[in-house]
Design goal:
Layout: H1 16-40, H2 46-53, H3 59-81, H4 101-117, H5 124-129, H6 135-152
Transmembrane segments: 21-39, 59-78, 103-125, 131-152
Organism: Deinococcus aluminii
Keywords: Membrane, Transmembrane, Transmembrane helix
Length: 158
């Protein structure tokens, strides 16, 4: 760490607390932007989700497809570029485990919950921020499900 001039205690590099605060602020701003995008694209709309599950509209399939394509491109770029994190560590993408059963069962569980609640876990906080208070029930059960998975994880097949 280098000091600035002759002023004791003044450093040119940010402290750990300042670095953490700027990182959290960046996450907050990205999350806020993502929430606005979810609302404006109607990805958080119960009606759009129901249209998708009834195969009445391409809107959500297009959104999900573009998200999958973006994720594939980003993952490929991360694997090839040798990009580094804010801490200077190389970002690695761990390959998925082989087998299909866990992914099918997880996808079915997620899909059933999504169909029953009318929302996937991503926009729960976005919808709460938009003043849709019944999402508190969905949030409570999402947290309960996460807790139960953590409590039963050792007994579940992986």
């Amino acid at each position: 760490m280098t000091t600035s001039g002759n002023i004791p205690g003044v450093h040119s590099e940010p402290t750990s607390a300042a670095r953490t605060a700027t990182g959290l602020l960046a996450y907050l701003l990205v999350g806020l932007y993502f929430g606005v995008v979810l609302v404006k694209s109607e990805a958080a709309s119960w009606y759009r989700i129901q249209e998708m599950f009834r195969f009445e509209s391409f809107h959500m399939f297009g959104l999900i497809g573009s998200a999958v394509l973006t994720g594939m491109i980003t993952t490929a770029l991360l694997r090839r570029s040798g990009a580094k994190s804010r801490d200077g560590q190389t970002i690695t993408v761990t390959p998925k485990e082989k087998g299909w059963r866990r992914y099918v069962l997880g996808g079915l569980t997620f899909g059933v919950g999504w169909g029953l609640a009318g929302v996937c876990p991503g926009p729960i906080f976005t919808l709460l921020g938009a003043g849709i208070w019944p999402m508190l029930v969905v949030l409570a059960f999402a947290l309960l499900g996460t807790y139960l998975y953590g409590a039963l994880r050792d007994r579940l097949p992986h």
